[in-house]
């Protein structure tokens, strides 16, 4: 059973969401001196995840 383009976009957006959450949590909990940078990059991953999710069924 192969993966179609919609399932690939779904998995990619899910993985990017997890990476974004991990980056925000790392910035807040572990590296407090660099929390702004980690949070900014994590929010960027959230935005890219949202864009990938919006592309499902349109490409």
Describe the secondary-structure layout:
Layout: H1 5-30, H2 35-55
Helix pairs in contact: 1-2
Task: Please describe what this structure looks like.
The chain has 59 residues and is an all-alpha fold. The protein has helices spanning 5-30, 35-55. Helix 1 (5-30) packs antiparallel against helix 2. The radius of gyration is 14 Å and the shape is elongated. The model has no long low-confidence stretch (mean pLDDT 89). Keywords: Membrane, Transmembrane, Transmembrane helix. InterPro entries: CAL67264-like. The chain crosses the membrane at residues 7-28, 34-55.
Poorly predicted parts = none
Structural class by secondary-structure content: mainly alpha
Put simply, the count of helices is 2
Question: What's the helical proportion of residues?
Answer: over 70%
**End-to-end separation:** 21 Å
Could you tell me the number of beta strands?
Answer: 0
Mean pLDDT: 89
- The percentage of residues in β strands lies in under 5%
Taken from the alpha-carbon principal axes, the silhouette is elongated
Order of helices and strands: HH
Radius of gyration: 14 Å
Largest sheet: none
Keywords: Membrane, Transmembrane, Transmembrane helix
Transmembrane segments: 7-28, 34-55
InterPro entries: CAL67264-like
């Amino acid at each position: 059973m192969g993966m179609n383009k919609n399932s690939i976009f779904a998995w990619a957006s899910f993985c990017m969401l997890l990476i974004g959450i991990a980056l925000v949590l790392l910035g807040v909990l572990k590296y407090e001196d660099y929390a702004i940078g980690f949070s900014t990059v994590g929010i960027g991953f959230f935005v890219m995840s949202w864009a990938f999710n919006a592309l499902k069924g349109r490409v």
